[in-house]
Write a structure and sequence with these properties.
The protein has 16 helices and 3 strands. By secondary structure, the protein is mostly helical. It has 2 domains: 17-155, no CATH class; 169-338, no CATH class. The two termini are 15 Å apart.
Amino acid sequence: MDSASARACAAVSFATFGHGRDLDPCVHIFMRRGLLLRRMFFKHPHLQASIYSIHNLHTLHNFRGVYTDDVSLEHLWPAPPPFTPNNTVWKPTFNPCGPIGLFIYSCHCCASTLDAHLNIHAFGELRLSLTNIPQQNVVPMLDAIAVRARTVAATVRRAAFGLIEEIYQHVMLQATKELSQDHARILRYHYTGAAWDSDHLERIGRVASAKCDLCGFQDSPTHFWGCPMLAQARHVEGSMLNDIAKHHLPPALQIGLAPVMGASHLDTFRRAPQPPGATLEVMWMLGRCNSEKLQADGSSLLRNSPGVMKASASPFISLLYPCGGPPSLAALPSTETCGASLPT
């Protein structure tokens, strides 16, 4: 949350803050509305008939956020942040009826729906029963629905991120917890989308050229992967990650942002397509090859690093920063060059 630029993505800043619960007011509003509905359902049983009746009223009038069928879930899209232009498509068709109607509307803004049995439905997710889950799981699960919707709504508008459904907060914390304050600040400046490359700055008239200030080649948000002036800073002697190329990783991971792992055993760790012609070592580091296959092939990775399989999370976390950490501060352009001094 301490990014130097107002152009940082608020959703990513909230998701990677890492200290306690999410700070986004929209997440808290969604969670509190759902929690209040559950509390009233159990503490005041005489109101359950009224709850069902109010939900039925919204169903009869085709209120947005009421569950109809699983097919329609695929066409739902999370609402953008408040005060975003052209967000009228998410506005309710009529004023919600009390707290129940407001929660139904909140579900719609999170690309989900609420059925007559108070089950929350979202595309690609298991049905969440608001009345049958343990009390200690209500808040985390409601928070997760809102956070996923916020992440999708934000990253689809940022080409540098690619479309990601959820940010792996635990991996982000583990990968950055031992970095110095200056290194953590520079990384946060990049993975929150606050760093504008020279190409974008030229479009708004802030710089005269779209070339990299260090090497003179065309600049881009991921130019530091190939900038010849940073080659020495990127290389770590003896590291098995030196051979990882930019095209091996999804867009978000290229700038240091870790998406959640994929559910398919045929994908890489980050749901990216398997790079063609990749060696077994690269395939293993991307999560597409197990240690048994490496052993059968007699891979040099095992011969040179006998203990590499003992900590299976090491390559998983190290993929955030293939150099083992960010480049030295001396090798990086100043924050003014990166655009931190732009007016808000």
